[in-house]
Amino acid sequence: MNILISNDDGVYAPGLAVLAEVLVAAGHQCTVVAPDRNRSGASNSLTLDRPLEAIKHSSGFYGINGTPTDCVHLGVSGALSDGVIPDIVVSGINAGANLGDDVIYSGTVAAAMEGRHLRWPPIAISCCDFHPSHYHTSALLVAELLERIDSLEVAPRTVINVNVPDIPYAELQGVEVTR
User: Fold this and answer.
1) What pTM, to 2 d.p., does this model score?
2) Least packed by Cβ within 10 Å: which of 28, 34, 78, 114?
């Protein structure tokens, strides 16, 4: 699966690196395009007042001087991945939950929303702590979700927003689907 990974915490965020590492280890092709700095709360905003610049870091990740939505626009076009159009957008791992009204302002959720026209429904993933210790737990849940994405029966243009407690993976007690 070709995955576009983005976030709103920025290209240097530890959750982004863990997510990419776990998904690549699971056999996926990943392109990472994220803001050059923390853009939490950017919502669905676009940068219209200046040109965007993409910088490829030694990690292979692209940093963009724009919003999470800008990053996904560039990534979905295939411009930063040798013309490969992603199958899905995964946004995160966000530090802090995205629940209730938070999803209106969330750059993490906004980045996922920009991928709602691709083959599979986009995923926004958040760890429910502002200083997480267990990003790996969230990343493993995404990898498991991707293994079953074909069997999900979600309406077109649906965004999957996942919030994971900041606990070791072995302590998870299941998954609950809510609206």
Assistant:
1) 0.96
2) 78
